[in-house]
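Fold it.
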Amino acid sequence: MADVTARTDAADLDGTRPPGTPVTGTLLPAASPHAHVDAHLQADLGAGTDVGTGHVVVDLDAVATNVSSLARRTGVPVLAVVKADAYGHGLVPVARAALAGGASWLGVAQLDEALRLREAGVDAPVLAWLLSGDAAPVAAALRRQITLGVSHPRHVEAVVAAARASGQVADLHVKVDTGLHRNGVDLADLPAVARTLAEAERDGLVAVSGVFSHLAWADSPRHPTVDLQAAAFDGAVDVLREAGLRPGLRHLANSAATLTRPDLHLDMVRPGLAVYGLSPVPDLATPAELGLRPALTLRSRLAHVRRVAAGEGVSYGHAWSAPTDTVLGLLPLGYADGLPRSTTGRAEVWVGGTGGRRVPVVGRVCMDQAVVDLGPGAREDVGDEVVVLGPGLLGEPTAEDWAVAAGTISYEIVARLGSRLPRRWSGSGDVVLEEEPAW
């Protein structure tokens, strides 16, 4: 499908484009984290021209297909997690693609992400669960019918105060801590919180429509803590019910549990990484084995090509020296764009297009630049395309490959891709049904 070089235009912001409609236009709005080229400069250059380091291409049809697969696999509503600018993939376009694929809910961590969705005309149910205890942003969320996750008694106080002041009924999901010990109402505090919420519900200030928690070891499906947390979660639901609350949506399963623990699907699943086609259990299964299509590709071009003699040192500290006479290529990307400095000497990129090859990143990754060893017989030249990471269909490195090289997880690799990299979206987000996954 043809690449859509646009990002987000005015129709995304005022809600005039129906959800699922292909993205068109040229520039990101100034409020976007990826906006860095003004309209006059873009007009001089021509639409779609890269000004800086490279660009990220996101396949919206892959996103929609992944969500569709997860919905069919689980048979329960899907809350697609689009926090952190949709894991670096672009909040609004990905949200629309996820809804086109069958997501019933969207989930974000921070309230400003939820408000951005509403400003873009996305009217689907949105859950935001990382609150500060300040009533002012809560009131803004209530005015826009955003469901709030409350995880501390102070959050409950702020929500009740905002609801009373605004006259808006607050739709709430109670986040309980069942063992991750991050955010969530402590089980010891839950009875008192449940009583406060029940009283507020009787007063017409809140409606407790859901309850959720988060697993610490979901990527190890048979780890004993998974069952312990599930049991604790069941107990927490009982506490809420004993107080007279009736949360209709229980959700515990993240991507890993969605794919590996059908007993934890409950009333709704809450996948994040799987929406973007990446495996949350890379030690157990690849994306293809899970029926997922990676959605993101990072492309760049060689900014410089030079020959060096054997023994010549490269980049800061000469941490790498050429073992033989060879040809080096320079990428105009560095750790400011999201390439981990820790991948020095361990990561690879793809050159040569179809039928190309992987070449290693050598020397230290710098803020704006990284060097690759093209090999003694290289024929590449300045301007030739480089695929830094992608789905892996041609043999190019994947986000998981970069994660292994960096000693981290694929979540971090895609989410940290910097604001200097424009996002482009291909496809329309229409659902493409595929065969059931083999795994």
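The mean pLDDT is 89.
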